[in-house]
Amino acid sequence: MWLEWLVAWSWSLDGLRDCIATGIQSVRDCDSTAVVTVACLLVMFVWYCYHVGREQPRPHVSVNSLLQGVDANGLQNGSMYCQSPECARCMHQDGLNQKLYHNLQEYAKRYSWSGMGRIHKAIREQGRYLSSQPSIQKPEVFFLPDLPTTPYFSRDAQKHDVELLERNFQAILCEFETLYKAFSNCSLPQGWRVNSTPSGEWFTFDFVNQGVCVPRNCRKCPRTYRLLGSLRTCIGNNVFGNACISVLSPGTVITEHYGPTNIRIRCHLGLKTPSGCELVVGGEPQCWAEGRCLLFDDSFLHTAFHEGSAEDGPRVVFMVDLWHPNVAAAERQALDFIFAPGR
């Protein structure tokens, strides 16, 4: 056995020596031009690797990679809070427009200007659009012109995702009920966020908050998280994208307010919908129904309230932001780049 191994090892060394000798002879046979060309290509490759290695990674990351990694910085009680003076939602409009135009140019240089006409027009004339909007619809951050305007949308606007959400109603409800049991043990369980209201209590359990995944919360509701990944029009990697469970206790009124943009449709899947609860968008009231989706444009002035009794229990919806159906695929890709979290 040892003899066979030594013979094989000797044969391997001979083969290696022959290979090296053949390579050296091949280089000698080549002309000087070929050698110089290969050397230049090698130097360029090494320089490229060095240059790429020095670049700092962008903070724009996918929902999946966040879930698989450690909890994101800036999370308090499982929720994302704005900590940057350059946040797209908080910046002064003049500075924001300059930043958005720079992001658009960067996107177009990397990819293409094709299909960017409406976004280019929107950014260049954003101040005029926002100031001239009627009081019933005033998006606070970004207005994309020439989109159909209506407070509510039919279920067919995003039919695939609506039907998928409704088919999974029981799974989402089951995971919510498991979460909600923790409220009997403490005032505010980990992962829940309290929102300001003039009366009552409004809690949210975020899965995606302003385009950033909340990994700890997603792990607590794995079926709901997987469902988000199956939606075709969910806004995920964009500061305008959110997904959460929203809970209104009896006696709660949400102050009338405008959403940040008209490029999305806000979808509410009713989980628990007692009587005395209403959503009012653009002056038009609607009621939720358990197991059914309600689609609306939250850039319209809107409010919600729960006037039921304590015996009725909370109003609970699963909320997710979907793309407006008239925003083209090329525009969605560009807007994801321009409004990427942390950009």
From TrEMBL:
GO terms for molecular function: dioxygenase activity. GO terms for cellular component: membrane. Keywords: Dioxygenase, Membrane, Oxidoreductase, Signal-anchor, Transmembrane, Transmembrane helix. It holds the Pfam family Asp_Arg_Hydrox. Residues 166-325 form the Aspartyl/asparaginy/proline hydroxylase domain. Gene3D superfamilies: B-lactam Antibiotic, Isopenicillin N Synthase, Chain (2.60.120.330). It is a single-pass type II membrane protein. It is found in: Membrane. Its cofactor is Fe cation. Its main location: membrane. InterPro entries: Asp/Arg/Pro-Hydrxlase, Asp/Asn_beta-hydroxylase, IPNS-like_sf. May function as 2-oxoglutarate-dependent dioxygenase. Belongs to the aspartyl/asparaginyl beta-hydroxylase family. This is Aspartate beta-hydroxylase domain-containing protein 2. The gene is Asphd2.
